[in-house]
């Protein structure tokens, strides 16, 4: 029986589409190297389609699903991507129809046993399951301390269950298959202070904090950043380390 769906992102769907990081081409190249066929992939928990668009560079067709219609409404149309509303337990796909099942920054919110059952059903023989997340962003040691304090102390109590898997870099994520070796992977982008705050504003803990307290904790983070990110227009290289778990059923 699938657990209840908790919607953490629909209310900030436009901001999620605008500010959430995309993923490096090296990630898709690595995943594509693990299989001989690249006919189709299922991107589960696609959100607004950041991973789906990248996967479409290597696979003939992407089936991208998410339980949030508001998130999917922000996805850009793509000739090789089919978007549909759906849970991790119900892809709507035929048996043995995809070469890859992927979940980008999403598996920690899933009913994992239900997801793995569905993944095994839709994967072709030799297919691959890949799930990944990214850590807190890395900018400079001084800025990182401010962001870590905000993430762990200020909004820390508001993270939903499942965040503990991200904090552990997916090392503790239940995964019933042998984990294959993965090369070091990261994504980086040049952001000014407003763009960075826009990204932080998409965190589920920030949204839940706003709802619980009736105030916006981003205002506090903005003030705290002024001491280390003095020029709001200055662009910093922001790096998100990726933590990828890959296996074959």
In short:
This protein is 33% helix and 22% strand.
CATH-defined topology: Rossmann fold
Strand content: 15-25%
Task: Name the CATH homologous superfamily.
Answer: Vaccinia Virus protein VP39
Q: What order do the helices and strands follow?
A: HHEHEHEEHEHHEHHHE
CATH class assignment: Alpha Beta
Mean pLDDT value: 92
The biggest beta sheet is recorded as: 7 strands, mixed
* Global Rg: 18 Å
Give the neighbour order of strands across the main sheet: 3-2-1-4-5-7-6
Annotation, overall tally of beta strands: 7
Tally of separate helices = 10
CATH architecture name: 3-Layer(aba) Sandwich
Distance between the termini: 21 Å
- In the residues, how many domains can be counted? 1
Helicity level, as a percent range?
A: 25-40%
Report the structural category: alpha/beta
Note down, in words, how this protein is organized.
With 249 residues, this protein is of the alpha/beta class. The chain has one domain (10-247): Vaccinia Virus protein VP39 (Rossmann fold), CATH 3.40.50.150. It has ten helices and seven strands. The chain has helices at residues 13-19, 25-32, 50-55, 69-72, 112-122, 141-154, 163-167, 193-200, 204-213, 218-225, and strands at 40-44, 61-66, 81-85, 98-104, 123-134, 185-191, 236-247. The chain has a seven-stranded mixed β-sheet with strand order 3-2-1-4-5-7-6. Helix 1 packs across helix 8. The longest helix has 14 residues, at 141-154. The two termini are 21 Å apart.
């Amino acid at each position: 029986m699938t657990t209840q769906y908790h919607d953490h992102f629909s209310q900030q769907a436009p901001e999620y589409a605008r500010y959430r990081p995309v993923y490096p081409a090296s990630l898709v190249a690595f995943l594509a190297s693990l299989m001989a066929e690249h006919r189709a992939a299922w991107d589960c928990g696609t959100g607004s389609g950041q991973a789906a668009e990248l996967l479409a560079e290597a696979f003939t067709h992407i089936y991208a699903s998410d339980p949030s219609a508001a998130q999917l409404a922000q996805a850009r149309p793509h000739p090789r991507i089919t978007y549909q509303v759906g849970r991790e337990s119900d892809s709507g796909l035929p048996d043995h129809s995809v070469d890859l099942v992927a979940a980008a920054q999403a598996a920690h919110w899933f009913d994992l046993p239900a997801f793995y059952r569905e993944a095994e059903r839709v994967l072709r023989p030799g297919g691959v399951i890949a799930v990944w997340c990214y850590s807190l962003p890395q900018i400079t040691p001084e800025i990182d301390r401010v962001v870590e304090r905000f993430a762990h102390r200020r909004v820390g109590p508001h993270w939903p269950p499942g965040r503990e898997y991200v904090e552990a870099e997916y090392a503790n994520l239940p995964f019933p298959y042998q984990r294959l070796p993965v090369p070091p992977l990261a994504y980086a982008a040049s952001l000014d202070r407003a763009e960075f705050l826009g990204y932080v504003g998409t965190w589920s803990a920030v949204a839940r904090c706003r709802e619980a307290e009736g105030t916006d904790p981003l205002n506090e983070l903005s003030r705290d950043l002024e001491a280390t990110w003095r020029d709001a227009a200055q662009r910093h290289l922001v790096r998100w380390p990726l933590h990828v778990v890959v296996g074959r059923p």
